[in-house]
Amino acid sequence: MALPSIDTAERRARITARLLLRRDEPLAVADDLVALHATDAATVYLSLAARLTDPGVELVDRALYAEVSLVRLLAMRRTLFVVPVDLAPVVDAAASRAIAAKEREKLLVFLDEGGGWDAAWLAAAEQATLAALHRLGPSSGQELGAAVPALRERVTVAAGKPYEAVQTVASRVLRVLAAENRIRRDRPRGSWTSSAYRWVESAPWPEPPVEEARAELVRRWLASYGPGTEDDLKWWTGWPLGAVRKALKTVGAERVTLPDGDPSAGDGYVLPGDNGPTPPAAPRAALLPALDPTAMGWRSRAWYTDPAHAAQLFDRTGNIGPTVWWNGHVVGGWAQPADGSVAWRLLEDVGDEADSAVRAEAERLTAFLGDARVTPRFRTPLERELSA
């Protein structure tokens, strides 16, 4: 029997119907997207704002710092993500726990080579840090360094080489404590665009079995991003191919053909029964930020981003910049010049209706940004040009 087929038009319709929905609350948006890229602090706010019915910085702040319905985790591909709090134990078991263990190993090597400090020294430094945080409340790295002498210790990195540098141990110790969720990132010292977070106390997540967690994460990903290939999932999760295949089998994923996809990528997978057409929806424009989870959802991107535009929209390592979307595919890019406006450019002719819809989204984004100025951490040629 021939496999069901899902073509590019259907895949783009699924993007509009599943990943660009308008929601009233940040948690609902995060549930749709599974995980929001948080390497760049502004990306979280802009990804949510693009999909919120009535976007506002305070609404996102409340979810992150008052309700704590959204939490930051060092997770897939050693990347910082924001995920719904109920999904955090799953992500932790499926990805973060192994990453945290490797981060601790690397930290011990760093301490031994740089200062001759061992695991006992590190354990004492961590306990002193946790005690200081309990005593002080939300604190910056600088404040914790002032309270804990061990955090002020300095290490020479790459001694004798042209890129020799001297570093304090504070940032690395705090990173490992956060990776293990013994502390977590709280409100930044600056505005919502800042990554200079304060730290607060936390506690390790519950520990579901790794294979169960991986299966649940793949189930959630397929529900939002399916169909996807094994290669897409291997890239997105950062797992070995064997782990991806085992999780797909556990959830009973069904194989489909992708006739318009990259022939080298192979067949795709969907959840059981999810191979039918998406109900027609109204056309939708969106201005998504650099590293938005939709734009970074698959390794193979030719079906939603014309390869002819890649040189303008991606940096040299494959990070995507701010993008303009119409009907489930990328049609241009945008940036914020110094005057605070939103400048955008369409890279293909998509008609007057799309032009008007994009213009309306640009006005909506301008209102959300207000006095804030956003420059992506990973800059792309078109973003640089439009922001000049």
Structure description:
There is one protein chain. With 388 residues, this protein is α+β, with helices and mostly antiparallel strands. It has a domain of 100 residues: Arc Repressor Mutant, subunit A (Orthogonal Bundle). It contains 14 helices and 14 strands. β6 and β7 form a beta hairpin. The longest helix has 28 residues.
CATH class of the domain at 102-201: Mainly Alpha
Radius of gyration: 22 Å
Structural class: alpha+beta
Please list the strands of the largest sheet in the order they lie side by side.
11-12-13-14
Q: How do the SSEs run, as a string of H and E?
A: HHEHHEEHHHEEHEEHEHHEEEHEEEHH
Biggest sheet, open or closed, and with what strands and sense?
Answer: 4 strands, antiparallel
| DSSP strand count | 14
Poorly predicted spans: none
Strand % is: 5-15%
CATH architecture of the domain at 102-201: Orthogonal Bundle
Number of helices: 14
- Mean of pLDDT: 95
* Helix percentage range: 40-55%
| Shape label | globular
N-end to C-end Cα span: 56 Å
CATH topology descriptor of the domain at 102-201: Arc Repressor Mutant, subunit A
GO molecular function: DNA binding
Protein name: Winged helix DNA-binding domain-containing protein
Organism: Streptacidiphilus pinicola
Keywords: DNA-binding
Give keywords.
single chain; about 400 residues; alpha+beta; Arc Repressor Mutant, subunit A; four-stranded antiparallel β-sheet; 14 helices; about 45% helix; globular; AlkZ-like; DNA-binding
Short description:
Keywords: DNA-binding. The protein has helices at 8-19, 26-33, 41-49, 57-66, 88-115, 119-136, 141-147, 170-179, 210-225, 230-237, 241-250, 310-313, 351-369, 381-387, and strands spanning 36-37, 70-74, 80-84, 154-157, 165-168, 183-188, 197-201, 228-229, 254-256, 268-270, 285-288, 323-326, 329-335, 343-346.
